[in-house]
Design a protein that fits this description.
Blueprint: E1 3-5, E2 14-21, E3 24-30, E4 37-44, E5 59-63, H1 64-70, E6 73-76, E7 82-93, E8 96-101, E9 108-112, E10 117-125, E11 132-141, E12 150-156, E13 167-170, E14 178-181, E15 185-188, E16 191-197, H2 200-203, E17 208-211
Parallel strand pairs: 1-8, 10-17
Antiparallel strand pairs: 2-3, 3-6, 4-5, 4-7, 7-8, 7-9, 10-11, 11-14, 11-15, 12-13, 12-16
Protein name: Beta-mannanase
Organism: Clostridium tagluense
Amino acid sequence: MNMRDLESLEQGIKSVKCEIEKEKFVIKWQWACGYDIVYIFKSKALDELGIEAITKENVKIFTREEYREFNGYVESIREIDQYKFMIFKAEEINEKLILVKQQDGENEVIVCTGKPDIFYKIIEYKPLFSKNKKVKMKIICDAPFKKDVLCYVKKQGNYPESQEDGIKFDFIGDFHPGVNEMPSIEISRDEFVKIFIKDVNRYGSAYNLREK
């Protein structure tokens, strides 16, 4: 992939925004003066991929003429997810297209095609004459998501009210659509477990977490 850096005083792509329209979304931006071609790089937002992940195979060439025809870059909505789009201006030198690397964030937009529901269920098993109990956790979701989206918290005496209200634990694997059954854990009879979104600032607006 042929690339060069965006020079300090050089104009880049700006004002990238997304509009959701029923079964499609439209991305619009301010074109750099004198440029009629861009590269578009699309990735899952939670994958946090950057310029280093770009190859000839995973970018799309899009022209100003197409932009005018469709009034932006248009894609159909096929699933509930979050994507990151990065728009780079492209220049033609010696019959080769060069991607102009822009890393100021002005050329990026997060597209949310829906807010997936995450349901959780906690089942307790209390053997007779035992000081401990077993806890089984189930996570039911519409879309795949990474293990660091959720955590579970253990507290003595009562159910925790937040992830700071007890001892916090991470999950060991990513979650797939459908029912995800966690291995049973053993805790004291007077301990209680609850599941929370781990980073509310990062993931709180991306998922609906509910107890089933």
